[in-house]
């Protein structure tokens, strides 16, 4: 598996974002324009070529999406979400001297590529939070399939914090991490629960639906 430096990974992600924002976005507009022309094509020849071009652009968009995924998350792409998370916990353990445990129920967890990337980054943010704020000795990441949902639990035995604010409907802490996890999870139809009290460790549960098989 690839061991990318942080700087390299950041650079890859930047390029992936640029390609997404500039190339895919524009291609999508081309498709919309073509689709509206298709509706009033003056001849069968127009219809044929416009239709073919439309299909081709759709293929280019899909190909580019795969490339972006490969580029921005090589680890995820090569290993899959579970193995990538496990490797992440190993790296964090080496770097921060906190004992990380990873558990997976080994059930199939079908997810779209972009959702896998999102979840991976969310878990990474939660683990970084543990290293920054928790003063923990142990931390654990668990992945579990529950009916049609995926539940990812990230917990630590550190100092904890007052999570009532974070759990409130309208909230925004001084940081951006938890806020953005909550927003992005919401956007894909999932949710986050935080269980934490001062002196009592922290447990964060991310829930999202799995793809129908
Ligand atoms: N595992 C944890 N243990 C103890 N406190 C935590 C933990 N996770 C979060 N917190 C508390 O919740 C606050 C909000 O976390 P959040 O990730 O939103 O912001 P941040 O980490 O401070 O900043 P940012 O993520 O924007 O770099 C933190 O500042 C910290 O006080
Ligand atoms: Mg944070």
Structural class: alpha+beta
Count of folded domains = 2
**SSE series:** HHHHEHEEHHEE
Chain-averaged pLDDT:
88
- Count of individual helical segments: 7
Radius of gyration: 21 Å
- Number of E-state strands: 5
Helix content: 55-70%
Under CATH, the homologous superfamily of the largest domain reads Histidine kinase-like ATPase, C-terminal domain
The proportion of residues in beta strands is 15-25%
Sequence of strands across the biggest β-sheet: 1-2-3-5-4
Q: What is the CATH topology of the largest domain?
A: Heat Shock Protein 90
CATH class of the largest domain: Alpha Beta
The hetero molecules present are: adenosine-5'-triphosphate, magnesium ion
Q: How would the global form be characterised?
A: elongated
The N- to C-terminal Cα distance equals 28 Å
What is the CATH architecture assignment of the largest domain? Answer: 2-Layer Sandwich
Uncertain residue segments: none
Biggest pleated-sheet summary:
5 strands, mixed
GO molecular function: phosphorelay sensor kinase activity; protein dimerization activity
Protein name: Histidine kinase domain-containing protein
Domain Histidine kinase: 119-212
Keywords: Kinase, Transferase
